[in-house]
Amino acid sequence: MLPRVCNYLAVSILCFALWRFGNAGPVGARESPLSLTGTTCNALARSLLWNVSAVLAMDHLFSGFDCTQQNAEVHIRTQTMSACTPQNSGCTHGTVLNIDENECLQKILEDLHYYRKTFGAYSNSELTKTVVRSIDDLMQNCFSVSVMDNPPAEESMDYQKSFQERLQLCKVLKGFNLRAITINRVFNYILAK
């Protein structure tokens, strides 16, 4: 009986290991751990947050409604918040917070790709010159990602024409503003170590 249990246990461990490390990821997925590169990542993350906040303050982009009164629409598919929340996030003093930096940075990078594609689809030069450029700078200088790695948006949309489209832009920008705050906090934590 004992040899059967040992054999079963050994086979189970082997199967789990093969499954865990043998899963194929999406094409272009990173095999090596991510890390922040460059010495200007904190400044670029702050610039991103500032640019998103500045675009949100442009009343002419949101004519017909008060954007500050709208709810944020956050991209949750990447699960960035759960990946970047410390596992031991109690309020005790002197505790070192533990996060899986590789997973957290991967989720942030996925968010940046998503928002770059989303904002790139808007035919708005102010959005492109500020927010999209800040996303590009952050990806190129902190993650060593070429803008060429990001395919251009399939179609350009003129979101100035429709009330619903301007309202959607407001909500997505507010959601990205929250994500930019998260990015700043994560970068500050990782780079302070």
UniProtKB/TrEMBL annotation:
Keyword entries, A-Z: Cytokine, Disulfide bond, Glycoprotein, Growth factor, Secreted, Signal
Cellular component, GO annotation: extracellular space
Subcellular location, record wording: Secreted
Primary location: secreted
Residues making up the signal peptide according to the UniProt record: 1-24
GO molecular function, one term: interleukin-12 receptor binding
Top-rank taxon, per record: Eukaryota
Coiled coil region boundaries: none
GO terms under biological process: immune response
Pfam families hit by this protein: IL12 (PF03039)
Subunit architecture: Heterodimer with IL12B; disulfide-linked. The heterodimer is known as interleukin IL-12.
PANTHER family assigned to the protein according to its UniProt record, in alphabetical order: INTERLEUKIN-12 SUBUNIT ALPHA (PTHR48485:SF1), INTERLEUKIN-12 SUBUNIT BETA-RELATED (PTHR48485)
Record-stated family: Belongs to the IL-6 superfamily.
Protein name according to UniProt: Interleukin-12 subunit alpha
Name of the encoding gene: IL12A
